Amino acid sequence: MSEIVMQLSNFAMARRGGFVSFPAVYGKEMIAMVVNRRTILKNAIGATTLLSAPFLMRTAALGSDPIRVGVLLDLSGPLEVLGRPKVNCIQLAAETLNAAGGVLGREVELKIYDTQSDNQLYAQYAQQSALRDRVAVVHGGITSAAREIVRPILSRAQTLYFYNMIYEGGLCDRNTFVTGPTPQQLLAKLIPYMIEKFGPKIYTVAADYNFGHDSAAWAARIAAQHGGEIVGEEFFPLDANDFSATIGRVQQAKADSVFNIFISPPQEAFYGQWAAAGLSGKIGLAGHAFGDSGEVRRLPANVVEGITVAKNYLDEIDTPANIAFRARYKERFPDEAVIGTLGPSDYQGMMLWAAGVEKAGDIARETVVEALETGISIDGPSGAVTVDPATHHCILDVYLAEVQDGRFAIQEHWAAQRPVENDDSCDLTAG
Amino acid sequence: MEIIALSGINIVYAVASLFLLAAGLSIIFGMMGVINLAHGEFLMLGGFAFVLSVNAGINIWISMFVVAPLVVMVIGMVMERLIVRHLYGRTVETILATWGVSLLLIGVTSVTLGYQQLGVSAPLGSVEIGDYRVGGYTFFIIGLAFAVLAFLYAILRWSSFGLKARGTMQSASTAATLGVNVGYVYSATFGLGAAISGLAGAAFAPIAGVTPVSGLTYIGKAFITVIAGGPLPLIGTSTASLLLGFINAAVTAISTPVLGEIALLAAAILLLRLLPAGITGRFFRGGL
Asked: CA-CA distance, A331 to A343, in Å (whole number)?
C-alpha cells in the first residue's frame, strides 16, 4: 500500500512542475547574470541581411555566448536539505569566477534544474542539459542512484560530468570526474580511529542500497586490515524508523562502536533512539553521512554529542582559506546557519573544471578532459584539491572530528590523501 | 534471561506502536468506513504540531497530549465538513478525495515547514536490564497504547456520545429519526479519530523524527492492521496489532528488520485469505 501511495505521489510530484527557472528560485539579483539571448540574436539579425541570418545567428551565439553549466540538484523534496547548500556553493563558485572575468573571458551561466528528489527527473533534466541547453559540463547528482542515471546519459551525449559527492567508491569512467571523497580517503581514517578509541568490535547499520552496501564492505575490509572485526551488519530500507530490535542486538553483540551508514531521515531516527536507550557515550558511534545537512545544529545536543565523523570539509576547519570561504558564504547566504560538509565539494568541482578549461583554452570535452588529466590542482576551502589522472577522482585532505558541545571538534587532519589504493584497478590514462 | 526480557519488551513495543499508528484509522475507517488515505498525514501533522510547540517552549507533555491532538482534530473536522461529508458511502470518490488531501498536506508542509525540522529528544531516560539498556520512552509508548485503547473503549462504550456514534454508524437514518444530529456525530467521530492520530504522531516524533513524507511510512501498516482486524474497530485493531506486531517483532528478532516486514505482510495476506472479513468477522462478534 505505502509503496503504491508513494509511487503515485512521486508521479504526482513529477507532474507538478518542470524546470525551475533561475530568477524564480534566486530572486531578482540573478536576472542580470542570465544574458538575454534574444538581444544577441536581434543584434546579429540587425547586423546582416535576413537571408543569411540563421547561419550568422549560430556564429554569433558561439562567439559571445556565456559558457553554460548544467546543474542537477534537489531543491525540493526530502533531499533538499542536501541539495540546497550544494547549489549555494555552485552559485558562489560561478559568481567568483565571473567576478574575476569569467572562464576564458566568457561568462559562466548556470542552468539549474531542481530534480525534486525524484530520480526520473534526473534522467529528463540530464537529457535537457546535454541536448537542449548544450551545456559544457554538468555538475550534480546526490544519491548514487541518481548518479548512475545521469552518468550514462551524459556519456552518450558526450557531455562532461562532475559528481561532487562523497560516495561508495569504485567509479572508473573517463567522462566523469569525482571531487568528493571516497571510502579509501574517509573510512581508511575513520575505522582505525574507531578501533583505537572504542575497541575492535564494530557493528554496522546501513541503508539498503549501493551506498550503504559498498561502504559497509569497505568498512569491513579496512577493519580487518587494522585488527578490528565487524560483529554485526544490518541493512534497512530507506524509510525505516524503528531500530529497537537492532539497538538490542548491538548490545547483545557487545559491540564497542556502531558505524552508521544511513542517510537522513532514518539516520536521525537512529540517533534519537540510540540516545533514548541511554547508549550515547557508552558505546562509540560514528556516522558516515552525519553532518551533511546540519544535523549538529538541528538534533538535540544530548543526541549528537560524541558522534565521530571523517570528512573532506567541515565548517570548523580553521585555515585562512576556509575562514575566508566561510565569510563569503555567510555574506552571500546570510540565512544559512552552516555550510555543511557537502557543498564545498561542489565549489571545488566548479573551480577544478574552470581551471581545466583555462588550461585547455577551450570548452570541448576532449581537450578539457586531457587538461584535467595533467593532474591539475586548485586550493579550495578544504585544502589542495588535485585531480588523480588515473581514476578521475581527487587527492584531498581528510579531517576527523567529534561532536563536542554542539560543534565539530577536529581531532586529526591528513593532507593530500589518495582516492584509491595503488592497485592499478583503474587507469583511465592508459591507452 | 536478560535477552529474553529484552526481546519480550521489543515485541510488546512493536504491538503497541502498531496499535497506536492504527488507532485513529480504526475509528475513521474501521468504524465510519471512510478510506482515509490522508491518515499518514494526520500522523505527520501531529508530529509537526508537537515538534513546533516543544521548540516554541511549550511543555513536552502538554504539546503531546493537548496541542497535537487538538491541531489535528481541527484539521480533521474541517476536512470532514468540507470534503468527506459529501462522500459518505461513495468509496472510490472518498479514496480519490482523501488521497488528494494527502498530497496537498505533503505539498503544503514541504513548502512551509520543510525537511529541516529541529529534533526533540525523547524524555524519560533509560532503564537498565542487566547488561542491557532500554529507553524509558519505549515503556511510555506501551503504556500510551493501553491508555488509548481504554480511553476509546470507555468513550464508545459508556458515553452518550459513544452510543450515538455507534448508532449513527449502524444506521444513520434510524439514528436521525430518533433525534440524533447525524451530521454532528459524523463530524465529531471523524475529529476523534483525527485527534488520536495526532496524539500517535506526536508520540512517535521524538524517536522517529518528522518530515513532510513521514506519513507514507506509516499508512500502509495502519491500513493492513485495521483491515486485518475486521469490522469491530477496537477489538479488531487491537487483536490484529497483537498478531501482526508479534510476528513482525519475533521475525525481526531472529532475522532482519526487512524479513520482519515481509513476515508482517505475508501474515496479513494469509490472514485475509483464511478470514476474508478480518479477525472480528469470525471471532468476537458483537463487541466493539
From this structure: 16
